[in-house]
Amino acid sequence: MAKVALVTGGSGGIGRAISERLAKDGCAVAVHYSGNVDKAQEVVDSITKNGGEAVAVGGDVVQADEVKKIFANTISALGSVDIVVHTAGIMPLFKIEQEDMDTFDKVIATNLRGTFLVMAEGAKHVRDNGRVIVFSSSVLAKSFPTYGAYIASKAGVEGLVKVLANEIGPRHITVNAIAPGPVATPLFLKGKTDQVIAELGKLAPLGRIGQPEDIAGVVSFLAGNDGAWVNGQIIRVNGGFA
Predict the structure, then answer these.
(1) 33, 104, 147, 150: which one is catalytic?
(2) Using an 8 Å Cβ cutoff, are 183 and 16 in contact?
(3) Residue 150 is a catalytic residue
(4) Strands of 234-237's sheet, edge to edge?
């Protein structure tokens, strides 16, 4: 029986690459979306065209009742949940002195509260010997101006990882976070000039920004049998960026 993977934000840049990689690895994939069902269906169609099994599941990760429905619909369609990969997030940038509380609250709600809710439901529904993989960011080590709210949200995520790893470890479920450096996705590239992107690429010894497939490969490792002894870790996937 194929393992079942739920990928939140599965229609986005990194999420799509992860969904397609896990399908290639033999998983049935629930491709989660928040607002754009057409994009999620594109990913589903791509997977099924290549012989895989996938469904689209919608819901707002900020709302507890909707997160419950995301898991319930995944189980209803695919039979179980073995792997949860939570990529959904936002990254609006502003200086702390602007005191933009509306945006701050939205970032914390989406990135931290949303992660907490997905982890909570994952703890309830992921089968024994499963995987929970969430996303932090390598920018925590850089403390760039305007990233304050984003960094605060991801620092909270990193704290949750180690706690949940201890809570559900007895069921042989691993809990880890991936902390990418700059990756060429619409979320990261939005509002950045080509010059800024080129300069960011130079910050990594490998001389480029990452591609979604770079991240998907590490998710594949953590989700597979070879990742079974990696637990409670924050894995910086960044080409040496930080």
Answers:
(1) 150
(2) no
(3) yes
(4) 54-58, 28-33, 4-8, 83-86, 131-135, 174-180, 234-237
**Cα(223)–Cα(83) distance, rounded to whole angstroms?**
7
At 148-178, the pLDDT tens digits run 999 999 999 999 999 999 999 999 999 999 9
pLDDT digits (tens, 9 = 90+) for 143-156: 999 999 999 999 99
**Residue 236 — φ and ψ, nearest 5°?**
-85, 105
> If you write DSSP's letter for every residue of 160-203 in order, what string do you get?
HHHHHHHHHGGGT-EEEEEEE-SB-SHHHHTT--HHHHHHHHHT
Cβ atoms 124, 72 nearer than 8 A: no
Q: Which domains, and CATH codes, for the chain?
A: 4-184+212-236 (3.40.50.720)
pLDDT in tens, 200-242: 888 899 999 999 999 999 999 999 999 999 999 999 999 998 7
pTM score, whole prediction: 0.96
> What are the residues whose beta carbons fall under 8 Å from the beta carbon of 40, sequence distance 6 or more?
10, 11, 31, 32, 33, 56, 58
